[in-house]
Write a structure and sequence with these properties.
single chain; mainly alpha; 75% helix
Length: 126
């Protein structure tokens, strides 16, 4: 959950704002916003890696049948949404993307859905 929170905050912190200047995150005035977003990209890649590793080890446990099945379906949906989110993120890295505003909107709402599915999974499966 902590990595999800960090990944969500990064795009807002990496914009050129008073906060990002005070933190020294936008000291290079020649770098573009997309270039400064590399920590956000890599957090997303780590999220899918950790999600798959977590799922793999959790499914190897002997007591998987005793777990809340609805919670497992939420986890499965969250992982699928995470894959779709990465695909949208890769599209957004293209500077020539025609429908950037619409793609960013989808990227935002899928982030919201990921948070909800992960929260439901944690609530149901602890």
């Amino acid at each position: 959950m902590l990595l999800i929170a960090v990944d969500i905050l990064l795009p807002y912190i990496l914009r050129r704002t008073r906060l990002s200047r005070a933190l020294g995150l936008t000291h290079d005035h020649n770098s573009t916003y997309l270039h400064r977003m590399w920590p956000h990209y890599w957090c997303g890649y780590l999220l899918i890696l950790f999600s798959v590793v977590h799922a793999w080890f959790s499914m190897q446990a002997r007591n998987v049948r005793e777990m809340n099945q609805t919670g497992l379906w939420f986890a499965t949906a969250g992982t699928a949404l995470l894959l779709f989110q990465i695909a949208l993120g890769l599209l957004l890295q293209d500077r020539g993307l025609q429908k950037r505003k619409l793609t960013r909107r989808w990227h935002y709402w899928i982030m919201f859905a990921i948070v909800l599915t992960v929260a439901a999974h944690i609530w149901l499966n602890g």
